[in-house]
Amino acid sequence: MQQLQMFIDGRWRDGTGGGEEVINPATEQPIAALTHASPADLDEAIASARQGFEVWRRTSAYDRSAILRKAAQSLRARADELARVMTREQGKVLAESKVEVLTSADIMDWYAEEGRRAYGRIIPGRVAGSRQMVLKEPVGVGAAFTPWNFPALTPMRKIAGALAAGCALIIKPSEETPASAIAIARALEEAGLPKGVLNLVFGVPARVSEHVIASPAVRKISFTGSTAVGKLLMGLAAKGAKRSTMELGGHSPVIVFDDVDAAKVAAVAAGGKYRNAGQVCISPTRFFVHESSYKKFVDAFAEVANGLKLGDGLAADTRMGPLANARRVDAIEGFVRDAVDKGARLRAGGERQGNNGYFFAPTVLSDVPDDARIMREEPFGPVAPIVPFKTFDEVIARANSLEYGLAAYAFTSSEKTAAAVADALESGMVGVNSLAVSTPETPFGGVKDSGHGSEGGIEGLDAYLNTKFVAQYQPA
Ligand code: NAD
User: Fold this and answer.
1) N or C: which end of the chain has fewer CB within 10 A?
2) Which CATH number fits domain 2-248+448-470: 3.90.76.10, 3.40.190.10, 3.40.605.10, 2.40.50.140?
3) What CA–CA distance (Å, rounded) separates 341 from 375?
């Protein structure tokens, strides 16, 4: 079985805090042994990051960019191999894994370029001969914690943003899907990253985050995961007055107005719904369809769901893989049972599949009552609850009624409706006539309980920069 190590102070090594097995969710078989950090290992990572930061902040943006670009290129060259590694750990279909690896390389490239543009400005002074300068400086050592649903993309957003800004980073990727982040660290090492700039650790999540965030050396926290854990980490960050970026849960409404082809939109929406078996923070999760096209939409959606081939993500004909872990299968089963008990109609799926692997059939629920749990709690799985609406104001009120505010979508052929709905939705991202709201160059982040701050775009770089104002006058 493969042994997966940590990367501390430029060295790959085992930790002294025990370890765990990594499981293939399609087979439930162990595929690797992962080492865990002890508090002493974490202290070493923190000390190393501190020293790495001193070297990296003095490395020119030009040279930093060259290292990031080289690493991106090597990831791209190995995309097929890395996609297989990701699918074996996480379950998503191979084609999605490959897109994720390639997009992660694009993110690295984009930050390599943007890091060279992290400049400030000069503001005219009120006194002759004076200069007022705004400088951008790296925040310092950052600590990042990432989940299991996008094992390369989410670590990459944090690593590339931090490193392009001149920060050092300690990252704890998910222990359930560690290999992609390990591959990113290897690519950076081989590209010439100075030791200590990136430290990769694993362990018991709560113990690692508590220890690392408490260190005075750490000045910035970045977390992607559930709202509950995000709030916990915000509390830890607040104790040290540390900056944070929180990319938390979502429960994205999709509003389908009566001026579009409901069957065509259903096909697009179902494609988005079952991507990564619905384990996507911006996954479309609450479908509000105008009552005039409701039946057509539900029928078309259920047809797509019933036709999706479920299986091991490594198989060429698989269109949806297993869920990433047993917790999700239990959770999804609970959501479906609750909705059906409260009167929802099951139009597709609704059950676990097979005796081996964490498979759950692509599921469609119609006529779901507003008090069903799935209409209020983030489902994070392959279930589409579809409900009808009558008026614009009513559907906006229902869409905005939850504490989540990550992504929201609307389908309409009217420019006027498009503008009105984009303005009215309480959401960090809004997709109109598309579910694509994530690219390397655009900001990605939520409002309300979905978090704060953005990753991606110039905002993602700014998240790792401090603003310093220098007022310079002529000598007296
Ligand atoms: P969870 O809430 O325990 O964990 C979510 C993630 O946070 C995991 O990667 C975990 O390793 C990490 N984590 C947990 N406790 C932590 C701590 N104290 N310090 C640092 N990291 C910690 O539950 P889970 O079963 O892994 O996921 C369930 C829910 O999490 C899902 O229903 C979904 O709502 C949410 N989630 C969101 C995202 C996202 O992209 N926003 C990703 C994965 C999971």
Assistant:
1) C
2) 3.40.605.10
3) 14
Q: Is the CB of 327 under 6 A from ligand 1?
A: yes
Q: Do domains 2-248+448-470 and 252-432 have the same CATH topology?
A: no
281 labelled catalytic = yes
Please tell me which residue in 281, 378, 426, 455 is annotated as part of the active site.
Answer: 281
Whole-number pLDDT of residue 1: 86
Q: Whose CA is nearest to atom 18 of ligand 1?
A: 206
pLDDT of 34 higher than 90:
yes
Q: What is the pLDDT of residues 209-257, one digit of tens each?
A: 999 999 999 999 999 999 999 999 999 999 999 999 999 999 999 999 9
**Cα separation of 169 and 374, whole Å?**
37
Task: Give 91's pLDDT tier (boundaries 50, 70, 90).
Answer: very high
Whether the predicted pLDDT of 476 surpasses 90: no
Sheet of strand 121-124, all strands in order from the earlier edge strand to the far edge: 121-124, 131-138, 465-472
Would you call 247 a catalytic residue per the annotation? yes
Return the best residue to mutate from 213, 229, 279 for the ligand 1 pocket (most ligand atoms within 8 A of CB): 229
CATH number of 252-432: 3.40.309.10
Domain ranges of the chain: 2-248+448-470, 252-432
Place of tokens 């997709």: 431
Mean pLDDT of the chain: 98
Mean pLDDT of 49-77: 98
